[in-house]
Amino acid sequence: MIKVIVLTAIAMVAFAANSLLCRVALRDTLIDPATFTFIRIVSGAAALALLLKLRSQSAYSEGKWSSAGALIVYAAGFSFAYIQLSAATGALLLFVAVQITMIGWGFVIGDRFNVSQSLGFSVALGGLVYLLLPGLSAPPLLSSLLMIGAGIGWGVYSLLGRGVGNPTAATGGNFVRASVLAVLLAVAGIPWFQWDVPGVIYAIISGAITSGLGYAIWYAALKDLTATLAGTIQLSVPVIAALGGMLFLDEVITLRFLIASTAILGGIAMVILRRHKVK
After folding, report:
1. Longest distance between any two alpha carbons in the chain, whole Å
2. How confident is the model over 170-221, as pLDDT tens digits?
3. What are phi and psi of 269, to 5 degrees?
């Protein structure tokens, strides 16, 4: 049990670190979003390929292009959104979109809400609307929509990956395929191409460690976690990112963010936890 707790904690910190690394790279270095995304995906593919090689497995035998497409949508939207969003706000919007995507898919396939779940979903949606309403402390709308799109991409990626026999090998294959798509993104971004050494280092750390190895650690922890518990635990990431943003990026947490995040995370938790009780 201690091993599961440690692995889960490391994975959540890694997910939050992705937000911090991307934000600081796009705020404080010269690297552009397309180049950051390209290096991140390729570095993640390389790290996973090495990990699989040590296990005498191939990173090319599993994975699929649909998952790779969802992965690149997530990674690209993530990078472009963090040009303007704070680490905390970006992480909140990302994981809200992930949860709504996965809950929404359950609704599509016939999983209906009861009264308590409907209330929780309404509270979460209201919190999101409140966060994005125009005002002095509202995040930029375009960047917010990009991050929501990234969250939908990650939600789809997660749904496509449910039930795979070898999650690490599938993730490696998806990253390798996504690297091809990342090349196309980088080529499209040539007119805006910029880079410097710190930016490249942040992208490599984000790709190889907090993405590639972080996802592998998370999959190891998932073996001993229920889907409900795993979904609920991920709601801790925006909180960790907010703390990291305050400590390392000198970001200020606004009252609007605190109210909205409490409503959003609390509402989603009501939906997830109530579903678990009903089952």
Report:
1. 55
2. 889 999 999 999 999 999 999 999 999 999 999 999 999 999 888 888 877 8
3. -60, -40
pLDDT given for residue 228 in this prediction = 61
- Residue pair 90/204 in contact by the 8 Å Cβ criterion: no
Closest alpha carbon to 77 in 134, 19, 125: 19
- The angle formed by the CA atoms of residues 101, 105 and 107, to the nearest 5 degrees, is 120
Say which residue the tokens 């692995």 belong to: 7
What residues make up the domain containing 26?
2-278
**For the CA atoms of 238, 267, 5, 50, what is the dihedral angle to 10 degrees?**
-50
**How far is Cα 234 from Cα 264, in angstroms, rounded to an integer?**
13
Into how many domains does the chain fold? 1
**The dihedral of CA 233, 235, 241, 243: what is its sign?**
negative
Higher pLDDT: 165 or 34? It is: 34
* Separation CA 43–CA 66 (nearest Å): 20
